[in-house]
Amino acid sequence: MHSFTEENYIKAIYKLSGNGRDGVNTNAIADALDTRAASVTDMLRKLSTKGLVDYVKYKGVSLTEAGERIALQVIRKHRLWEVFLVEKLRFNWDEVHEVAEELEHVSSELLTRRLDEFLGYPQFDPHGDPIPSESGELKLKPQKLLAEMDVQDSGVVVGVNDSQPLFLQYLDKMGIFLGAKVKVLDKIPYDSSLEISIENKKNLVVSSEVARNIFLSA
Ligand SMILES: [Zn+2]
Question: What is the pLDDT of residue 18?
Answer without folding.
Answer: 76
